[in-house]
Amino acid sequence: MSESTVGSIYDLGYKRYEGARLGRRHAIWALYIYSVRGVFGIGRSLSSKVGPMGLAIIALLPAVVQLGTAAIAPEDIEVVEPAQYYRFIEVVLAAFCAVVAPELVGRDQRMQTLSLYFSRALRRQDYALAKFAALITGMLAITVIPQVIMFVGNGLAANDFGDYLQDKWTDLPSVLGSAILLSGFIASIGLVIAAQTPRRAYSTVAILAAFVLASAVGSSLFEAAGQDVGRFVLLISPFHIVNGLTLWFFDASPEVGSQLAEADLPGAAYAIEAASVALLMLALLLRRYGRIST
Amino acid sequence: MTLIRTVRLTKRFARVTALDGLDLELEPGIIGLVGANGAGKSTLIKILLGLLQPTSGSGEVMGFDVFRQGPELRQFVGYMPEHDCLPTEVSATEFVAHMAQISGLPRAAARERTAETLRHVGLFEERYREMRGYSTGMKQRVKLAQALVHDPRLMFLDEPTNGLDPEGRDEMLQLIRRIGMEFGIAIVLSSHLLSEIERVCDHLVEIEDGRLVRSSSMTALTAPTSVLAIEVDGDAGQLADRLREQDVAVSRSGRFLLVQKEDDALLDIIRDSVVDLELGLVRLEQSRRRLEELFQSLPAGEEQEGSHV
User: Fold this and answer.
1) 3-class SS at B38?
2) What is the mean predicted confidence (pLDDT) over B88-102?
3) CB B247 within 8 A of CB B260
4) Residue A105 DSSP symbol
5) B81 and A108 in contact by Cβ < 8 A?
6) Which of B52, B137, B128 shows the shortest CA–CA distance to B97?
7) pLDDT band at A158 (very low <50, low <70, confident <90, very high)
8) CA distance B242 to chain A (A)
9) B295: Cβ–Cβ under 8 A, 6 or more apart, which residues?
10) Cα-Cα-Cα-Cα dihedral of A172, A173, A176, A182, to 10°?
11) DSSP category for residue A43
12) For residue B286, what is the enclosing H or E element?
């Protein structure tokens, strides 16, 4: 290309930017929004929507079943109780995390995009926090939305919506509290694993194993040694932690005969463990991003 | 305003010392950073961007402390890395606008400037496509665009012509020159090709083994020498003989005769000799030093002592 043609194409005049520069907080917010969109594949190709959207829909199914039942037989039938909801979708929650977390953080490592982020208006730890918040948001969407649909649907099916609200409004803080804690718990484990490798296949398998395998192991060990102090081995199982903490938030009892009932641990134990694990994982995540080379 | 200042900047890795007490003070301009592979160029750039922590020493860019004021500083800095760094599953438009926001621009401004910037670097309809299928040339343009989109005061370009064919290389260098000269953005350009530095830069910094070898303006480096180059249309040997008869020391270099110019009288002697011999004078010029010659004739070690920083 000769000098003159280059000139004619590019010579549209360069404008300086005199507007606002919003700094670090704006950068973190922008990364958060971009990442939340990425979680669900919004603005991406169809293939990046299929996984997360599909799992989100599956997570809704128990709520749909409950609403269907309530519509047909409105008399106080609760096939799916809010406090028990995650028992039906525990594997879906793990799978969602296993599909989304590697995309969220692995891609930037694989494509070496991290150096572009870290050379901009944020710090390494800000990046990790924005990604963590984005994954929690995604997890919240697939936990809170079914619960809210179920709550509203049950209310509409009830004889009197006003009475229903008066009766059940205390469920809402329980829905929110349990969803936030279990989302943070699952997301933190998933992100720490995904942040270790740029290879998506590895981290997806590892995250699934961390939830499904660890739950199976915890459950089997409990069968084998579930007396006295041995009862605490149930705390190895992420799925039991998720369901245990949810019951605690709803102040509900586990189903008779279930392992949670047999273990008979104080409900707070599950919540405390979930919170401690989430904090520990967050610390590991921040440390990882403080050191990762770019 | 001082653009870049480092004081005893040192970076040691497990086995190598990448920067060894580097003292540097640079004014805004188009600065070429040269040195062999592993000389410490990329390490220096990464430290100034806050991507790497130095072992010791301090660094300042445009008055900001690199380590304590990183996010504030980096709103005004652009970086084009040497390596691939683009995601494949988004379009250039979406990615560059996102990067502009991460540099602190509001969303609307980010979008507007993205459109302009992609036009400046010469990316048109393709910009709405996923970057998956982009050629090397297009990717380099997007990499340049993301470093430019937030209107930085300073851009670090690490081997920006890597992987480009000669034509793409040419266009990239023209763009960079334009960004530096017309857009008024300071540039630190690292390259292992002296010819590129010579074409684009007005200041040169050479580092070797993590130490500063020289820091000097390009005009000083390629200053006119006192050697006159003469090219004639006809028998140059004849002219050489005639000049020697008049006590002028002459050497030959290809088609050119080279003479040492001591005073202007020499010019008259040359003119008269050419006329006498009825030759055509094609060229008579003071030759400039070329960077390549400089780097050959002055081995790095000799200048280390005297280079001022």
Assistant:
1) coil
2) 96
3) no
4) I
5) no
6) B128
7) confident
8) 43
9) B194
10) -120
11) T
12) strand B280-288
Interface of A with B in 32-71 (CB under 8 A): 34, 43-45, 48
User: pLDDT tens digit string along B1-19?
Assistant: 899 999 999 999 988 999 9
Cβ-based burial of A244 (10 A; exposed 0-12, middle 13-18, buried ≥19):
buried
Residue with tokens 């652009």: B78
DSSP assignment of A175-205 equals: HHHHHHHHHHHHHHHHHHHHTT-S-HHHHHH
Give the integer Cα–Cα distance in Å for B40 and B24: 13
Q: Which chain B residues are within 8 Å of A20, Cβ to Cβ?
A: 106, 109
Q: Which residues of B touch A107 (CB under 8 A)?
A: 87, 89
C-alpha dihedral, B118 to B124 to B128 to B130, nearest 10°: -90
pLDDT at B294: 66
pLDDT in tens, B221-279: 877 777 888 888 888 888 999 989 888 888 888 788 888 887 888 888 888 999 999 88
Is B243 exposed, middle or buried, given 0-12, 13-18 or 19+ CB atoms closer than 10 A? buried
Report the 10 Å Cβ neighbour count for A174.
19
Nearest CA in chain B to A107: B87
> Is-contact A209 A108, C-beta < 8 A?
no
Q: How far apart are CA A45 and CA A39, in angstroms?
A: 12
What is the ipTM score, two decimals?
0.90
* Long-range contacts of residues B69-72, Cβ cutoff 8 Å, at least 24 apart: B70/A123, B71/A23, B71/A24, B71/A27, B71/A120, B71/A121, B71/A122, B71/A123, B71/A126, B72/A23, B72/A24, B72/A121
Phi, psi of B163 (to 5 degrees): 80, 0
Mutate to test the interface with B, among A37, A116, A131, A293 (most CBs of B within 10 A): A116
CB within 8 A of A137, min separation 6: which ones?
A32, A36, A39
How far apart are alpha carbons A199 and A36 in whole angstroms? 21
CB contact under 8 A, B99 and A116: yes
Sign of the Cα torsion B40, B46, B48, B51 reads negative
How would you write A56-84 as a 3-class SS string?
Answer: HHHHHHHHHHHHHHHHHCCCCCCCCCHHH
* DSSP H or E segment with residue B117: helix B107-120
Q: What distance in Å separates the CA atoms of residue A123 and residue A24, rounded to the nearest whole number?
A: 8
- The rounded distance, in Å, linking the Cα atoms of A253 and A251 is 7
